[in-house]
Every structure is written in C-alpha cells, then in structure tokens.
Amino acid sequence: MAAATPPPLPGPEEYAYDADPVLIQTPTSGDGVEGGGPWTWTPMWHRPCTFGPSEFDAVMQNLVRNPNVLSSWLFRADILAETTEAAAAAEGAVTPFPCFASLVRADDRTIVRRLIPRNTMRDKPMLQTCLFYRGEEGNDDHEHDDEHEDEDDDAEERSLVVYLPHVSDPAHVPFYHPKVQGVGFLHAWRPRDGRGTVSLHFSLFPETLATPPDDAASKLSRPILARVALSLVNTVCKHGEGKRAGYVKRVHHDQLVPQARVQDRYTRLKEKHARRLVATWQETTDPAKHVFEDLSIAAFLMELWRDMYGVEGEEGVPAQFPGFVDVGCGNGLLVHILNEEGYRGWGFDARKRRSWQQYEHYENGDGAGPAGAAVSLRESLLLPSFLTDKGNDKNETETDTGRTSSTHDGTFPPGTFLIANHADELTVWTPLLAALSGCAFLAIPCCSHNFTGARFRAPPPSSAARQATASVSVTLASSSTYASFVEWVAGVAEDCGWVVEFEMLRIPSTRNVGLVGRRRNVDAVFTVEHAWDVIASHGGAHGFADNVAKLAAADGKKNTH
User: CA-based angle 431:432:438, to the nearest 5?
Assistant: First the structure.
C-alpha cells in the first residue's frame, strides 16, 4: 500500500499590524559590551517550511554573497570583511552588534558587504553588516539528562540572520533596499515534527515607529514594506525547499573572468553608450535587447583581453592588443562599441545593414584600407581560399568568386582575435580558421549550421562531453538541440587543436554560451591538410563554395541595376 502523500504546506501569513515582537533584542551586545537602547523588531510575514537549519544556513550564505537573488536591482555583493573584528572596524558599522533573547552569535561569522546596484546613475553602493545567530527554545530550564529527554526533543532550534545597513537616515537608504535599519530572517525548526517556520522581521527607523498607523505616510509605507517582506520570505523558502530536494545549480557564471570586473566594466559602458545607442537605433529589432547584450559582450571581451594581452595603457587598451575581426558582424553594433573604446578591429557580413552608416569608422590610409574609406564594417562573403584552391567539390566551384572584393578568403593576420557572435553559418568555421591563421577566438553559437552552411541537428553529446561541461552548466550536459550544437562546435575546436573554455555569458539571451579558444593543446602547426581532415570528420563542406558563388552572383546582379 502506497504511503500517504503529506498534506501541502500552508502559504505565507502576514502578522497583524500590532502583533507582539517575536525577535526580542536585549540591551547588551553579543560580545558583552553594553549597548544603547535595544531596537524593536516588527514581525512582517511567516511561512511554514520542511527544510532544517543546515539548509537554511546554506541558503543564507548564498544570499549573503549573491544579493541579486533577492533583488533584481542589484548586481552583486563585494565582500569586505568576514570576521567580527574586521566587521566592527568597517566604515559606518552598527556597533555594538545587537544580541537577542535565547540566541547567541554563531562562531566568528560576521560579514560586511558592499551592495552594488545595476543602475549606479540612480543608486549608490551601500555597506551592510550580516550577522548570524543560533539558539534553542523549550529546554532552557533543564540539563540534558534522561529525565528530560522528551523536553529536549521538543526544543525548537532557531537560526537568525540579520542585515544591518550602514545608514542612519532613512532618506539615505537606496531604492533597492527597504527603508528600515535592520532586516531579520528567523528560521525556527522542530526536529520531532520535521517542520519549521521562516519569518521576516524589520527593525524600523525611529521616525517610522513614531508615525501613527492612521497617518498618510504610514498607510503608504506599510504596504510597501509588507510586499518587500513577503518577497524576501518567499525567496528564502523557495531556495530552502529546493536545497532540501537536492537542487543543483544549473549554471555557473564567471569561469574565465571575475564577475566584479565584467560587471564594473559593463556599468561604465552602459552609462557611456546605452542612452545614445538606444535613441539612435536604426533596425526594426528591439533596441534594448541588442544594445545591452552587445554592451555585455563587449565588457566580457575587454576584460578577457586585459588578461590575455596585459594591463591597459594610457588610453585603456592593452599595449599588445593585436586587433579583432567580427565574423558575421550583423548590425555592426559590437564592432562600433569596441572601436569607440579604442580597440582596433573590424567586422564583415554577407549584407550591409541600415545601421552601418552610423557605426562605420574610417581609416587614414594606414594599410587597412584606402585613405578616407570605411573599413570597420564591410560587406563580404566568407569563402576560405583552400576551398577554391583544392575544392571540396573537386573543382566544381572553380570561379573568380574567391578572388573578388566581395568575398573574404578566411585568412587573418596572426594573433588577430576572431569573434563569432551568433554568426550562424560561420560559427563552426571560426575555430578552424583561427587555427589556420594562429588567432584566438570567441564563438557564441546560436542556430545550428554545419560546414556546408545548411541547417542541421547536431548529434547528442557523448557522455564524456556531458561530464566535461556539467561543471559549467547542467543545460549543456543535456541532449537539447542547442546543447548538442554547442558540444559539436566545441568538438570541432578541440579537433583543431584548441583547449576550449566555456563561459555562460551574462546576456539577455538563452543562447549565451561562449566558447573561448586562446590556448593550443598541440605544438604542431595546423595546416590546410589538417583542416580538410577536420571538415571531413564532421560531415564535409560539400556545397559551401557553390552557395557562396551563388550569393556573390546575386549580389553582383543587384549592384548592376
């Protein structure tokens, strides 16, 4: 007979406006130093849970280090101190630290963090102290002996995490934080029942406490605080129940470049360029998505290049930067952003976009192009020279196409960094051409195309490939169409001699896997013969040169009318 399904847990319940405090702060700090008058902690919401103290502790540790989980207005937290002594010395710290009835400080864990907002034009970063407490209720009057074993089993285990913003005036509290002087997350656990409760408590500023409940300001602020508190308690419970059920983090960001550096760079780029780029958008697509996506990719690239090519010079660009080429550059925005930031490079695509006119940069006859010519964005078809020299179709595509100005032969100056951002038909060619020319690359796969340029479904990744990428993303370890294509491109890159690195980019797109090739796993030179072997082992390139010839011919007819 099947076991009965336990009844579902009740939902969250709001405390009454005049409910008695659950958290009782005493007038003595946790380290025994006399403090001022204790704060009053107003209970806001409580919700039943089935996860114990260990899961609660793990969840709160994660939330302390990743506050963006609790608020989408935040980027991250920079940890400034992790001991009581260091925390007490932090600028604006609320000391002496509070203590609470039936609770004691947990070890020496005291964290001071700097909250970094997404929009620094509106809000400033804020320092905040995070304190951890533990205790029991229900057996204070008994020793742990056999006579009172039942009473011990009934003891309620309590865990408390308190956030104390380093702000003394509610007017200075930033938008992303509730206008309170303290936030308390209390987890109460009953081992015998296997059930517990998570409750959320605010310590209101004295000005707020002094405001009568029927006052207009109070009627406005209380519902806002209640909504924030409900969101906080629901998020903690969601993550706690997931932890108990064995949830595994699906995506691991920031594998190649530290999060703080990329986000800080992104913030600077956004403040400098976003408003102008959105306001002058020429395409019919959503400007916000494309602008913020390319700003984010540019930020990642600039920080990656900083690691690869050395520290920045006076103009902010690494002195040894070799230049870049954006293969299949689309609307040209990414090229434009990088050029605006001083990074030398250009991009090409099969057809010119309406936005190119405003994004084009010009040269002064330095060898990259004639004086006064637009060289940053070029209308060109990719036709690797070895396809026409040797011919995958046994010379059936011997035309002058590979020698005209409307095609690119796939050869790049050694060291050039190649970018393939959702380059579709050109994605899989990028690691191969990079190996032939001695270039590093970043490929961000999107639609599945093989070496012929045709749409296809890549075979599911092998168990070894899944295991290799599971540490980066659970999604990549699946057999979905996108995951299969990403693994297929990565396999091509590895066959070309690359050590492939994965980065789950922080961009507003579900196709956000970046494949980076900057180190070789072989010392031998990658030759055209090697390239043919790789192409053959992955289905061949039959018809690719023919398709390019047809596109070039169609383009020539268009330009004669």
Answer: 80
Instruction: Look at the alpha carbons of 29, 31, 32, 35 in this order and tell me if their dihedral is positive or negative.
Output: negative
Asked whether the beta carbons of 460 and 484 are under 8 A apart, the reply is yes
Model confidence pLDDT, tens digit, residues 72-131: 999 999 999 998 888 888 888 887 889 999 999 987 789 999 999 998 888 899 999 999
Q: What is the DSSP letter of 2?
A: P
- Residue 167's pLDDT is what? 94
Q: Which domains does the chain have, with CATH numbers?
A: 13-139+149-244 (3.30.530), 320-560 (3.40.50)
Output the pTM of the full model. Answer: 0.82
Cis upstream peptide for 96 (omega within 30°) = yes
Average pLDDT value for the chain? 86
DSSP 215: S
Give residues with Cβ within 8 angstroms of 80, minimum separation 6: 86, 90, 112, 113, 114, 127
Q: Judge contact between 180 and 203, C-beta under 8 A.
A: yes
Contact of 27 with 37, CB cutoff 8 Å: yes
Q: Which residues contact 127 (CB under 8 A, 6 or more apart)?
A: 80, 90, 91, 92, 93, 112, 113, 114, 115, 165, 166
What is the mean pLDDT of the segment spanning 244-257?
A: 86
Handedness of CA 546, 550, 555, 561 (dihedral sign): positive
